[in-house]
């Protein structure tokens, strides 16, 4: 995986010198369009692809609806020094003052969503940077980080912060995705869903019920072919489903895999 003048900029990210500028006209991605998930590195997508998801540090695809990935609820490991230096008070800490990390993604520290307004100033400026580059939507990741906080954060904290991020995205002229976390589907007011492994966990219907055909689903090769086949058989005519290698490496690199149904 994966600022205003008053906050500074993250590593390798140019400073944004103003807060997000309100713009009318944001639109969600086209329903059931073929998409490609390129977080491991940008590459030219296949001709039938209509939606491309890339990291906020990458350039959007100028010919397709482009979605900007932002790790909005946790840090990227390479940015930990920057967070500690510039916004240490926004990082979640345990009772002993240590940083709380995601046990599944070493080095990713949880952001303290109880400081929702201050966090949104930082992340909202990243949204503005996505818009300035030409992205049309944002994908704020790790909405479910409260479940890995050891009880320090709550579902309500995640929802409150999520709603502020929705306002910031819309003010910047961007649609915004719910990333995973089916138990929150439809509650916060996201515009569409990007879901990982919903066939593995039997969650695809939850997203479909909340977002109709505007669900973009990724299954991974390390789960075998059954989950992808199940997703295609059950929902392939209703939502966009792809199969990708777990590291989402660029086309032409060892391990690359991409299919859609």
UniProtKB/TrEMBL annotation:
<dbReference type="InterPro" id="IPR013785">
    <property type="entry name" value="Aldolase_TIM"/>
</dbReference>
<feature type="domain" description="Glycoside-hydrolase family GH114 TIM-barrel">
    <location>
        <begin position="35"/>
        <end position="249"/>
    </location>
</feature>
<dbReference type="Pfam" id="PF03537">
    <property type="entry name" value="Glyco_hydro_114"/>
</dbReference>
<dbReference type="InterPro" id="IPR017853">
    <property type="entry name" value="GH"/>
</dbReference>
<dbReference type="InterPro" id="IPR004352">
    <property type="entry name" value="GH114_TIM-barrel"/>
</dbReference>
<protein>
    <submittedName>
        <fullName>Endo alpha-1,4 polygalactosaminidase</fullName>
    </submittedName>
</protein>
<feature type="region of interest" description="Disordered">
    <location>
        <begin position="1"/>
        <end position="24"/>
    </location>
</feature>
